[in-house]
């Protein structure tokens, strides 16, 4: 394949949605960087604050991966990468999902061990403008700041994520939109310490860890299905996307007796129409195509049917 070969460009409305999403993610990185800095300087010895800070630090990963995939997928196919770079989005989504899963397990372990050891955290005071202030007030103010920008930005990402069928953006939006739970849990932990309930801090961190772990497990299942060439899934569930179901049925109508195989690369769907599933490439053809030593590696030979596809059923709607 020539390096000059490229895929059809995105429709104008999709390009506009992508530009909007890129701008939002740049804003997100800026706000998150400031939040991480603020939380670092005020978290003290609080387990809930530490947990919230780590979650905010982890939140930098999805927008970074989205910006990377949005840049890489525009690169044209080449001799070394004949299918282009659409799968960078799939790889980025998998990385973000794995990070969520690992972090959820880590936070769960930290919270449980703190409760088992019955560690009693303390919140000291700090001198500010000549006044002695309980650090808990600053912690709660920092938590409030860590919630508001992500929640607003998360809601702004929802529509572009749906328009672009982008799982990284959708995951990022869900994480941001749910940050108010983390903030409230953290504030409850700080208040609990102030009232003398030593376990409130670790319990709040435990609640946060369950939220992170749940998202990590769900997203890992979807990401693995995508990397294993599974049928296209929904943005937020491990279920086959309705568009994929409709596309499969339409192609089966156009090519009766054939099997339709669908897979997802990033935000795009690839469809392959082949003979029945029990049809295999004969050994002679394998040897002719792959050579005697490497013939076993040839499992499928597909032919693009762009022209004949349009003529197969002229009156049928094209999806």
From TrEMBL:
Compartments, as annotated in UniProt: Membrane
Membrane-spanning ranges: 21-42, 93-112, 132-153
Record bears the keyword Nucleotide-binding: no
Domain Cation efflux protein transmembrane: 32-228
Record's keyword terms, sorted: Membrane, Transmembrane, Transmembrane helix, Transport
Coiled coil segments of this chain: none
Membrane topology, as annotated: Multi-pass membrane protein
Main location (coarse class): membrane
SUPFAM superfamilies given in the database record: Cation efflux protein transmembrane domain-like
Protein family membership: Belongs to the cation diffusion facilitator (CDF) transporter (TC 2.A.4) family.
Identification of the protein by name: Cation diffusion facilitator family transporter
């Amino acid at each position: 394949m020539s390096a000059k070969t490229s895929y059809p460009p995105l429709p104008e409305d999709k390009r506009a949605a992508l530009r909007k999403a890129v701008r939002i993610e740049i804003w997100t990185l800026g706000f998150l960087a400031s939040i991480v800095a603020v939380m670092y300087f005020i978290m003290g010895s609080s387990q809930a604050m530490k947990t919230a800070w780590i979650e905010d630090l982890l939140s930098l990963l999805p927008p970074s991966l989205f910006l990377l995939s949005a840049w890489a997928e525009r690169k044209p196919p080449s001799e070394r990468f004949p299918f282009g770079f659409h799968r960078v989005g799939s790889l980025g989504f998998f990385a973000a999902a794995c990070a969520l899963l690992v972090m959820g397990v880590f936070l769960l372990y930290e919270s449980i061990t703190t409760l088992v050891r019955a560690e009693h955290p303390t919140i000291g005071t700090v001198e500010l403008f000549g006044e002695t202030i309980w650090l808990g007030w600053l912690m709660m103010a920092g938590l409030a700041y860590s919630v508001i920008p992500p929640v607003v930005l998360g809601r702004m990402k929802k529509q572009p994520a749906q328009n672009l069928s982008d799982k990284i953006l959708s995951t990022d939006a869900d994480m941001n939109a749910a940050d108010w739970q983390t903030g409230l849990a953290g504030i409850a932990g700080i208040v609990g310490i102030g009232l003398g309930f030593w376990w409130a801090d670790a319990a709040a961190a435990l609640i946060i860890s369950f939220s992170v772990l749940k998202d990590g497990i769900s997203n890992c299942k979807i990401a693995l299905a995508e990397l294993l060439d599974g049928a296209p899934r929904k943005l937020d569930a491990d279920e086959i996307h309705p568009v994929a179901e409709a596309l499969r049925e339409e192609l089966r109508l156009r090519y009766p007796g054939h099997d339709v195989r669908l897979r997802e690369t990033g935000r795009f769907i690839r469809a392959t129409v082949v003979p029945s599933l029990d049809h295999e490439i004969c050994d002679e053809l394998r040897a002719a195509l792959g050579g005697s030593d490497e013939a076993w590696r040839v499992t499928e030979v597909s032919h693009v049917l762009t022209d004949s596809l349009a003529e197969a059923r002229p009156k049928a709607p094209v999806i």
